Amino acid sequence: MSCAEAVFKYMVAQNRPYSATDVTMNLGNQHSKGAVQKALEQLAQQGRLLEKEYGKQKVYCALQSGGASKETLAKELQELDAAIASATQNLNAVNQQFNESEAVYKELSSGPTTEEAEAEVAALDARLQRLRTKLADLADNCIRVSPQDRQRISRQHETIMREYRKRKRICNEMVNEILEGYDKSKKTLLEELGVETDEDAGVKL
């Protein structure tokens, strides 16, 4: 039996669409795929098979004698095309939903687990308790100053500052009098006298 006859006999017996790859495999690879493809094309040209292209792939089905006409089969194939297109659209929608769900899953998986989050919360809570204890200890050990003591210290500070400014003014007057008969700079004189200014000490009053 020739390849074409074997292919046609198989297509009539099965009475369903097949591609060249399907027919080659279903015939147990008794004929090469190239020979099967050529036989299918010849049978289609002879009007014994109906050929339909799906993208780069061709599908064939037998025209049964006494059965449906070529036009009826063509219409059925058109309906099949529409069903395939609808199924493809649904598949794309499902794939999109799957990709979105997968992205959410990856985002959730990258975060800490419940156990890890609970451990982190426990560690932070323990640290907070330690800080509260330390703060309480500092509050207990700090020296509390009464309003009366604050006023007394403030008055003492003001008295000391007034006395300091007074002595500073007198010192500056004495230095200026010495500078009248001194042939060097004021800075040199202060260094020789061992006098330290506010600027030298980094003090701002």
UniProtKB/TrEMBL annotation:
GO biological process: one example: meiotic strand invasion involved in reciprocal meiotic recombination
Coiled coil segments of this chain: 70-141
Gene Ontology cellular component terms for the protein in this record: condensed nuclear chromosome; DNA recombinase auxiliary factor complex
Subcellular location: Nucleus
InterPro entries according to UniProt: Hop2_WH_dom, LZ3wCH, WH-like_DNA-bd_sf
Gene: LOC117648516
Lineage, broadest ranks: Eukaryota, Metazoa, Ecdysozoa, Arthropoda, Hexapoda
Domain Leucine zipper with capping helix: 145-202
Stretches assigned to the Homologous-pairing protein 2 winged helix domain: 4-62
Family stated for the protein in its record: Belongs to the HOP2 family.
Protein name: Homologous-pairing protein 2 homolog
Alphabetically ordered keywords of this record: Coiled coil, DNA recombination, Meiosis, Nucleus
Gene3D superfamilies for the chain: Winged helix-like DNA-binding domain superfamily/Winged helix DNA-binding domain
Annotated source species: Thrips palmi (Melon thrips)
Domain of life assignment: Eukaryota
GO terms for MF: double-stranded DNA binding; recombinase activator activity
